[in-house]
Design brief:
heterodimer, A: 292 residues, mainly alpha, MetI-like fold, 15 helices, 74% helix, 0% strand, B: 370 residues, two-stranded antiparallel sheet, 72% helix, transmembrane (chain B), ABC transmembrane type-1 domain-containing protein (chain B), MetI-like (chain B), transport (chain B)
Chain lengths: 292, 370
């Protein structure tokens, strides 16, 4: 134990003065950034008398599950069981991650490595839409979805998500760096384009694929737009949407703050977990990609 | 890096000689180091096919065109696998991005209330928007501009600075600080307002009020999210807090990718301070990521809208203090069902985004030739 402490201390000495000051500054900043999040964790487990005490406390003293029970009690009154919303969200997010990454990678590969007629046009269109937010054109999107007849279906959740220009863009940029010789070698060995894509391009692009998976998960897990606009039936809506209806009126209403904190946790934690799992890979590989 | 791109060089050189402005921008953004290398290579060799084709005799044209079409078709057929690959994405792209944008443009010239079919009314929507819509002119537009001017460049500079500071730390610590900075951007949607509401709540139980009261900075609790004069500030702080997203990660990766020997070479050449290093080495060598970060900052800034409603809990926000263009679109589109007018506002917003992007392209694209 002492040895470990000593080693850590010596590591600290290895940094120069600038780095020490910087470390301190960054720790303060990180605390500020994470404060609201640590706080929401605590808030979710506070009993009533701690929620509204003055002066307000930051950390929970006697953690209870009362807020969780409250949330369950509220959801028990709704017509559709909470499990259904949860199932919808998990199902949609899982499929969305698969489909978005697949579609993006499939599109990015020819853009990066095949010079087919029109590839510049396609890529220019993708760059252009990178600058636009689809949220801005919600109304025509609604019209398209209703015309396609995919209102009230899982396609209505999934297909709009698949049009994620940033996914194609990032993957294409990453694939540009794959040496053509590598692909040529595989082709000479008799691999067709699909095998090349699956066996060489995807494994080499793992970090980029992981990044797209993160983005796809984030955009689908917290997505309330498709539920609000494209889904009429209550049992087709997502968990995020359900929670937002629960907490909509909470803004000026302190009564359900605890339950709201629980809801926020449920929405936030999967995002964090997915990111932490995949982030190590992403940043580590990104650091190495500079040496190649 | 550029050596890997050399197999592509001959062909791309030919294509890049026909540079029109759109292509220049495209390569500007596309420029990871490989593309940037290509662009530089071509700048020195702009001669060639485009001038050659112009010199052709006019009477040979139809025949030539037919032959060219045939060749194009043949080439397209040879690349049928490529088209197969891009089809799934392209279909969704066309259906949910291209068509909606075009439809918005078309609808913006109509009166459309979602019940009757759209009626063409020319420029009237736009005329009303920029001359008579007081809510828009007095609240939505100035609010959006103020919000965007602070959150956009502010968040952007902050993202770069934070990424730079993180890179200065020893390698094994970087990951954790990157995580700490990125985490807030995960609190999307409703989670964000729930996280911040108790902090900014207007009574003395609100954390900010409680702290400020205790240190004697204020005498009475402030209504951070319901007072019209304070709401905008609250929105800006919360948005900045959560703005270290994809752009930040891209800049971090870009910084990590700057080769160390650049710095060493620069030191030998007499660069002294770290500031000089940033200005002369870091930023020029990570321009592609800087531009990407800028585009992301602009898009996220302009599409933010719900935050004011969520924080204040009122729609519209008190005295329209947090009324942004996006709220204005929702207001007309989903509450008043004036879809044509809402489409006109969204076209205006798209134009605003486009112009801002152009501006950032000017910033990071112009130095490309130096």
């Amino acid at each position: 134990m002492r040895l470990r402490l000593w080693r850590r201390a010596s590591r600290l000495h290895a940094m120069d003065g600038f780095q020490k000051v910087l470390l301190l500054l960054m720790i303060v900043l990180s605390v500020f950034m994470l404060l609201p999040i640590v706080y929401i964790f605590n808030h979710a487990f506070k009993p009533y008398h701690e929620l509204f005490v003055y002066p307000p406390t930051f950390f929970v003293k006697e953690p209870v599950l009362q807020n969780w029970n409250e949330l369950v009690a509220v959801t028990a009154r709704s017509t559709v069981p909470m499990v259904r919303y949860l199932f919808n969200s998990v199902f949609i997010s899982g499929l969305a991650v698969l489909l978005v990454t697949a579609a993006s990678a499939l599109c990015a590969y020819p853009l990066a490595k095949h010079r087919f007629p029109g590839y510049k046009l396609v890529f220019a269109a993708i760059i252009l839409t990178l600058m636009f937010a689809p949220e801005v054109v919600q109304i025509p999107r609604y019209l398209v979805v209703s015309q396609l007849g995919i209102m009230n279906t899982y396609f209505g959740h999934l297909l709009p998500l698949m049009a994620m220009p940033i996914g194609v863009f990032l993957l294409k940029q990453f694939m540009d760096q794959i040496p053509n010789a590598l692909l040529e070698a595989a082709r000479i060995d008799g691999a067709n384009e699909f095998t090349v894509f699956l066996r060489i391009v995807i494994p080499v692009c793992k970090p980029a694929v992981a990044t797209i998976a993160i983005l796809a998960f984030q955009s689908s897990w917290g997505n309330t737009e498709s539920s609000a606009l494209f889904m009429m039936d209550e049992e087709m809506k997502s968990f995020a949407f359900y929670l937002s209806t629960l907490t909509n009126n909470l803004a000026n209403n302190v009564a359900m703050q605890g339950a709201a904190a629980v809801a926020a946790l449920i929405l936030f934690v999967p995002n964090l977990i997915v990111f932490v799992i995949l982030q190590g890979k992403v940043i580590a590989t990104m650091a190495h990609s500079g040496i190649k | 890096m550029s050596s890997k791109a050399t197999p592509l060089l001959p062909r791309s050189t030919v294509e890049m000689t026909k540079l029109d402005p759109a292509d220049v921008e495209m390569t500007g953004l596309a420029a990871n180091s490989a593309a940037a290398g290509l662009a530089r290579a071509t700048n020195s060799a702009v001669v060639g096919p485009s001038t050659a084709t112009r010199l052709e005799a006019p009477e040979a044209k139809p025949k030539k065109q037919k032959r060219r079409l045939a060749r194009l078709l043949r080439e397209m057929w040879a690349h049928r696998i490529s088209y197969l690959f891009i089809t799934p994405f392209l279909l969704c792209f066309v259906a949910f991005i291209a068509i909606p944008v075009l439809a918005a443009v078309a609808l913006s010239f109509t009166y459309f209330n979602a019940i009757e079919s759209p009626r063409f009314i020319g420029w009237q929507n736009f005329q009303y928007l920029i001359s008579q819509d007081l809510l828009f002119l007095k609240h939505a537009l100035p609010n959006t501009i103020k919000f965007a001017l602070i959150v956009g460049p502010g968040g952007y500079v902050a993202a770069f600075l934070l990424a730079w500071l993180i890179v200065q730390l020893p390698a094994r610590l970087r990951k954790w600080f990157a995580l700490a900075m990125y985490t807030p951007s995960l609190t999307i949607g409703i989670a964000m307002s729930i996280v911040w509401l108790p902090m900014l709540s207007g009574d003395r139980i609100g954390y900010l009020n409680s702290i400020l009261l205790r240190i004697g900075f204020i005498d009475v609790p402030k209504l951070w999210v319901t007072d019209p004069s304070l709401l905008m500030n609250a929105m800006i702080v919360v948005t900045l807090w959560s703005s270290m997203g994809v752009g930040f990660l891209a800049m971090l990766a870009g910084l990590l990718n700057v080769p160390q020997d650049y710095y060493e070479a620069a030191r030998i050449d007499g660069l002294k301070s770290r500031l000089q290093e940033i200005w002369y080495i870091t930023i020029p060598s990570m321009k592609p990521q800087m531009l990407f970060g800028a585009v992301m900052a602009i898009v996220t800034t302009f599409k933010t809208g719900a935050i004011g409603v969520e924080l204040s809990g009122q729609n519209p926000t008190p005295e329209y203090a947090g009324h942004l263009i996006i709220n204005h679109i929702d207001d007309f589109g989903f509450i008043r069902f004036e879809m044509g007018y809402a489409a006109a506002i969204s076209v205006f917003l798209l134009l605003l985004m486009y112009v801002s992007n152009k501006l950032s392209w000017g910033l990071f694209g112009s130095k490309e030739d130096e």
